[in-house]
Amino acid sequence: MKVLYDLGTAIFSVAIIKPDPEDESSKKILDNKIKGILTRLGATHFICFVDEKGNFRKKVKHDYKGNRTSTPPESLGMLKQHVIEKWKAVGHAGLEADDIVAITHTHYKNKGVKNMIVVSGDKDMQQLDGVHGVTYKSDLTRKDVDNELAFRNLYNQMIQGDSADNIKGIPGFGPAKFAQVANGVFSGLIGQTDIPAIEKNREHHAKVLEMLYLLEVYLYKYGIIKGTEEFAQNFLCLYLKRDPIFGFEIPKWRKRSTDES
Q: Each residue of 96-118: b (16+ CB within 10 Å) or e?
């Protein structure tokens, strides 16, 4: 099994219980968490990921994550540096770890790599189709996400918003209502058309229609100007990047070592 491991949740969970940056025992706790996940998954190869400084989303939406007022644990920076040195964790300035995971996952998927799993405690990662290992406290749950569900997860975030990142979504319009109305609209539009271009790529055009419908709901709720602005900002903040960006080199797989002490 090849594992793409977003370490954000693991690092933060250790930093919360071990906030002292001088406490070396926190490194051992974190190492054991990482080794435990890799062992449970039967990992043969892996790549670890961390957040780096800067975040392009704060330029898109000035109050992105603005509701996080508590001071981060002092050991957070020390633990990030530790996984960079020991586990060769990968990050890129200006992007979040989940963007880097998504770019790497897309690259290797397009290369035909099989038996690959994404491990994260961040629900945003489920925009990626494939096998996921969802971490919560000490639990690890497998979740299979197909292409349709991956897009639905993004749409649902656009509707519900994301309170953790200070993204409001569409007030009073939940995912159940969206799915009920949208499914009828899309099946009617796609089912009745005889346009050759759509006939050849129904799945793609269905997704285009869903996105246009979602935009229409934003315009209805917020008005044309504010609705367009909210839709664009929320999409750019919620959507995970897939294409490599200038200056970022796709990381290579690390072979699991028998000696990880």
A: bbbbbbbbbbbebeeeeeeebbb
